[in-house]
Each structure stands twice: as structure tokens, then as C-alpha cells.
User: Which sequence fits this backbone?
């Protein structure tokens, strides 16, 4: 990080260092580095496209908070909460965002709905996305540690046009899922129909 | 047709020739030939995989009954009926099956729910499909007039394993839609998640 964001207590009751410490206890050192790179990228994109640095920083730092939780932690909450009836079949890639937001709210006392919604949507996107949700969705895809065939094109697009970057990521993610015969969460299709389909 | 199916009145109050006549008045000569080829293919597949010839014949003959209706006929019914709220954006490819079933029921007095459901699902498939629905879905894709790169592979599969043919068609249709950046109806993803995704 070139410049660290100062926290005012608006979104998290503690310093940024406190939050990084809490997050680091939930994941491997490798994943923490990814999280810090997502924060750096999201802040860089926010400087260009707009977005409040403190809110973006908190959202980025917590986006993968629940990624390494055991399946049963999610399944228990899914069985008790108001979730789609077939959510249990979609696994960690969907749970760690959608149900992860609930854990972040409970365990970190972060209740800002824009941050929580950005976490919920960070692997699927949505038809309607806040600026923060777009920044996290895109930064997670193009942070400097990512390495896949089209990453440089995606990254250049992210700096140029955030909405186009949302569309690019959605299209290529869906393509990848279909080619891999992987489960597709219905929300991903809402995102695709809204952002990718030519009007 | 090598052998024409004799109608007993169980599904349609008239002869097969009467039904072909009614259907022919709704479409171009070219589309009628497609419809007759779907019937022929669906009956051939039913002989191998099972399926009552009379029910299969009626479902095949009516599957594209509403294909050439003007958009307003569909939009009027969508605004009055119990349809998904965003159905109006999906256009004729989805409407002619889903709403077309209603027209078939009203105008041809065909009320067999298996036939109507096969019509509703013939462009999207579904997680749960009757034997008739599978036969129409697959026959529509591999009838002898179809010509696309993988049609021979799809046709061979249809004769060998109907469920595998449903999966093949679903996977390649979804691939085509994503590659074309075309709208994807959510039901298509239910079909994909059920039939294509590896368990």
C-alpha cells in the first residue's frame, strides 16, 4: 500500500490495523496477501471512478473473511436463515459471500448495508450493484496477483471503464463455468443478462 | 412419415390430418416441414426409448404452433397471466413455448398437461422433464433438417441415450447463447445445473 486509509469508526469500531489483524486470524498468509491486494486495487480504482476510500477499504478487507470456514458453519446458518431453498448445493464459492456477510456482521460488528451487500455479491455480481460492489467485484478479478490469459485486458479495462470491466468479468466467468460444466448460481445469470447482453 | 399415427381422440378431438391442417394455417410452409420432421424424429426416438406415439405426435405437431404470432398476442397474455415478472423481456424464443401452450389449450382444445408442459419447455428444458418433454426437446434439436457443426454427434447421441442428448443439447445451447451474448432465460440454467453439471 502506498497510502494507508485512516479509519474514523464510521464502518468499523477500530483501526485498519485492528481489522487486518482480525481478518488475518481467519485465513492463510497467502489469502491475506490476496485480500490486501484486493484492497489496494479497489482503492486505486476508487480514485479514478469514485468511491469512499474508508468504505472501500473495509469492504475489500472483509470480502473473503469467511472463505476458509468449514462447510458446516455455512450449512447451519443456511438451514436457519432466509436463504434460497437450493443454496446448500452451491458450495463455498457462493456461501462465503452470501452467508459470509452474516458472519462479518455478527463477528466484526460491521453493519453498513453497502459493505455487506458488496461482500454478498462479490462472486456473482448482480443486476443492480453499488459503486462499492462494482469495485470489489472487479478488484477481486484483476488484483495484481491474478494470472490468467485475459487478466491484462481485464485490468486495463478496469482502469478505463468500471462498468465495462463488470461486463467483461461476468462474460468470461460465465464462459469459464459453462466450459468447466460447473454449477451456475442463478444470480450470475441476472448479472449476465443485465451487464453483458447487448441492448 | 413411414407410418402415420392414428388418433383416438384421447388428446385431440379430430384426426391427425385435421391437426396438421390447423397447425399449417399458423405458419409458413417451411416451418410446417420442420414441424413434421420433429414429429418424425420424436416418434423414431419414442420407438427406441419409450413414449406413447399418439401423445408424442400431438406434442410434436403443436410445439411451434405459436411461433409466428405477433409479439402483442404474447405481451397481452403475459400482462394478464401468472407469468414471471420479467418474462416480457425474453421475446419470442421463450414466449412461443411458455405462452404458446396457453394458445394451444384455448384454440385447439388440447388440455393434456404432459403435452402442454412439453411445449412450454421445448426451448429451455427443465430440471424435471417427462419422457414426452425430453423427446420434443431433443427432436427439435436433431430433426433431419437441422444443420450445425455438431448435429450429427447430437443425433447419434439421441438414438443412443436420450438423457445424454438432453445434456448435450443444453450444454451446447448455453455455450452458444453466452458466446452470442444473448439473453439467457433462468430456466435454462436450472436445466444446465441438473443435466450438465457433473455430480
Assistant:
Amino acid at each position: 500500500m502506498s497510502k494507508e486509509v485512516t479509519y474514523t469508526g464510521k464502518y468499523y469500531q477500530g483501526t485498519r490495523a485492528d481489522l487486518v489483524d482480525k481478518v488475518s486470524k481467519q485465513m492463510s498468509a497467502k489469502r491475506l496477501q490476496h485480500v490486501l491486494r484486493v484492497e489496494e486495487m479497489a482503492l486505486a480504482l476508487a480514485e479514478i471512478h469514485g468511491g469512499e476510500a474508508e468504505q472501500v477499504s473495509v469492504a475489500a478487507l472483509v470480502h473473503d473473511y469467511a472463505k476458509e470456514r468449514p462447510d458446516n458453519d455455512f450449512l447451519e446458518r443456511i438451514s436457519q436463515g432466509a436463504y434460497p431453498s437450493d443454496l446448500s448445493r452451491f458450495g463455498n464459492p457462493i456461501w462465503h459471500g452470501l452467508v459470509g456477510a452474516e458472519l462479518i456482521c455478527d463477528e466484526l460488528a460491521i453493519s453498513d448495508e453497502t459493505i455487506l451487500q458488496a461482500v454478498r455479491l462479490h462472486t456473482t455480481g448482480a443486476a443492480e450493484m453499488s459503486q462499492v460492489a462494482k469495485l470489489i467485484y472487479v478488484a477481486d478479478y484483476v488484483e495484481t496477483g491474478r494470472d490468467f490469459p485475459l487478466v491484462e485486458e481485464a485490468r486495463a479495462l478496469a482502469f478505463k471503464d468500471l462498468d465495462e470491466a463488470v461486463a467483461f468479468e461476468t462474460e468470461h466467468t460465465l464462459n469459464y463455468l459453462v466450459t468447466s460444466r460447473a454449477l451456475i448460481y442463478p444470480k450470475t445469470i441476472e448479472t449476465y443478462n443485465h451487464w453483458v447482453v447487448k441492448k
Observations:
- Chain A touches chain B at residues 171, 174-175, 178-179, 181-184, 186, 189-190, 192-193, 196-198 (CB under 8 Å).
- The mean pLDDT of chain A is 96.
- Residues 46 and 135 of chain A are 7 Å apart (CA to CA).
